[in-house]
């Protein structure tokens, strides 16, 4: 007997809002309806395992089909089904979740973990694309008859008896005119591939054509024919649901290639498998990123019981691990009704902390078990480790034991090893250990060689985070300063209070200073005459460590350093009073010649810093030719 009624909405009449704005992306309707079908199937399997099901389960494939002419999309399952009364209860009362009641009913019998629906709203996502929805369902319970529910998107529905012999539910969407884009095979397949690729119940959509061998030709060569087969969308047992002990390296790499077909092989991976105090499974891969800090994020996929939710996982995964790839699956990650945005609660924070710990443990294990392999990977691993140390104190405490320094000779040191290696020779008069570093070994080679002549070691700090990392290390390492190798002349950069006698008188020093100031004629260059080894360069150009570091920080977007970035560059020009070139300048008879030699020595220093360009470079070359011809 046909019956008409009014849908009961708890709280207030929000149906129009639910219909159009429940989800930000309308394609979500298919994920929700397929998830409901999977829920119904998982409930049936649970009932069977509890002895509550009298019949055989049989084929439980969820099938999706569409009819372009009739403008319909159909989702059909052979799950638990519903009686007429259950349809009224679960469909007509919005936000009354059948899954919630099911879990409550059987919670004392067995752990119920495979039910996705929590909010009772997913079904209504159908109305974002449909002008009318038909639901035909038959319960698994003996002696029940099928029922049909129809609604046109208003608060009115019609329910009646239906002719359906098999248990399960069929949902037929009559697609609205403004949503006909979804009546396309490849559009539907794309949505299913995105959201349903790893659902635990087989999902079938349409047909696919395969080429199979069909005997031999007269020359004995194999013949092939095209065969049409059912197209199955998903892999019901993805890698992260399996035990790590059952998997080989090639299994992990194959799965990675399925997720990221264009990527290089990963460096290594971490298989997550936690069941207390929260449920979490997944696989996180360390990709090869080198120093490209701007690589695309959003490469970690978040699932809830094998249903794809989002690739925006910033609340679940620590910020410094957002460059990782892989999947995370947890029923304990709270989601809002749209399942699109994570809510920051205690479970999310616990999972975030656990992932940090697991990554730190894995890195420590790799370092301890195979240091050589770890060092070979450091150029890729380093960016994760440094980012983690900068952003999380707990990670720093673990990472300081496996973080590495790399010097310009490609040798690696732990923090403790490096301190032991350099403290004897690189401690200044104030008992500070001075770590020298370069941000560009090629451009700063002159300064590196000067340091090496003193038996000083020089670290390579050329990564995108190193301007921040250098400041950070000075705060963490006791009585330690880091200075770029071109921040001062070599005798000043590690000041041991050792004086080199000057061959010049005070009067000569003032004369040399004046000659260079007039030859350079640049107010951003501050000239001084110093007593250095005759083996050092005649002129050295430096920017103070403080000034240059502030400018580097401003380039990295440090808000507090923006003002420094706008200030004009200021350089120190150190003239080596003990160098033979200076003696030659003083002995030159003509002022023009003195200026020419001074400018040549200055330009040579500019060239060593890669600062000589344009007209100045051209003039330097011409002057070099002229001086060589003399």
UniProtKB/TrEMBL annotation:
<feature type="region of interest" description="B">
    <location>
        <begin position="340"/>
        <end position="555"/>
    </location>
</feature>
<dbReference type="GO" id="GO:0051082">
    <property type="term" value="F:unfolded protein binding"/>
</dbReference>
<feature type="region of interest" description="C">
    <location>
        <begin position="556"/>
        <end position="630"/>
    </location>
</feature>
<feature type="binding site">
    <location>
        <position position="32"/>
    </location>
    <ligand>
        <name>ATP</name>
    </ligand>
</feature>
<dbReference type="Pfam" id="PF13589">
    <property type="entry name" value="HATPase_c_3"/>
</dbReference>
<dbReference type="InterPro" id="IPR036890">
    <property type="entry name" value="HATPase_C_sf"/>
</dbReference>
<keyword id="KW-0346">Stress response</keyword>
<keyword id="KW-0143">Chaperone</keyword>
<dbReference type="InterPro" id="IPR001404">
    <property type="entry name" value="Hsp90_fam"/>
</dbReference>
<comment type="similarity">
    <text>Belongs to the heat shock protein 90 family.</text>
</comment>
<dbReference type="GO" id="GO:0005524">
    <property type="term" value="F:ATP binding"/>
</dbReference>
<feature type="binding site">
    <location>
        <position position="77"/>
    </location>
    <ligand>
        <name>ATP</name>
    </ligand>
</feature>
<dbReference type="GO" id="GO:0140662">
    <property type="term" value="F:ATP-dependent protein folding chaperone"/>
</dbReference>
<comment type="subunit">
    <text>Homodimer.</text>
</comment>
<dbReference type="InterPro" id="IPR037196">
    <property type="entry name" value="HSP90_C"/>
</dbReference>
<feature type="binding site">
    <location>
        <position position="36"/>
    </location>
    <ligand>
        <name>ATP</name>
    </ligand>
</feature>
<dbReference type="Pfam" id="PF00183">
    <property type="entry name" value="HSP90"/>
</dbReference>
<protein>
    <recommendedName>
        <fullName>Chaperone protein HtpG</fullName>
    </recommendedName>
</protein>
<comment type="function">
    <text>Molecular chaperone. Has ATPase activity.</text>
</comment>
<feature type="binding site">
    <location>
        <begin position="97"/>
        <end position="98"/>
    </location>
    <ligand>
        <name>ATP</name>
    </ligand>
</feature>
<feature type="binding site">
    <location>
        <position position="82"/>
    </location>
    <ligand>
        <name>ATP</name>
    </ligand>
</feature>
<dbReference type="GO" id="GO:0016887">
    <property type="term" value="F:ATP hydrolysis activity"/>
</dbReference>
<dbReference type="GO" id="GO:0005737">
    <property type="term" value="C:cytoplasm"/>
</dbReference>
<keyword id="KW-0963">Cytoplasm</keyword>
<feature type="binding site">
    <location>
        <position position="169"/>
    </location>
    <ligand>
        <name>ATP</name>
    </ligand>
</feature>
<dbReference type="InterPro" id="IPR019805">
    <property type="entry name" value="Heat_shock_protein_90_CS"/>
</dbReference>
<keyword id="KW-0067">ATP-binding</keyword>
<feature type="binding site">
    <location>
        <position position="339"/>
    </location>
    <ligand>
        <name>ATP</name>
    </ligand>
</feature>
<feature type="region of interest" description="A; substrate-binding">
    <location>
        <begin position="1"/>
        <end position="339"/>
    </location>
</feature>
<dbReference type="InterPro" id="IPR020568">
    <property type="entry name" value="Ribosomal_Su5_D2-typ_SF"/>
</dbReference>
<keyword id="KW-0547">Nucleotide-binding</keyword>
<dbReference type="InterPro" id="IPR020575">
    <property type="entry name" value="Hsp90_N"/>
</dbReference>
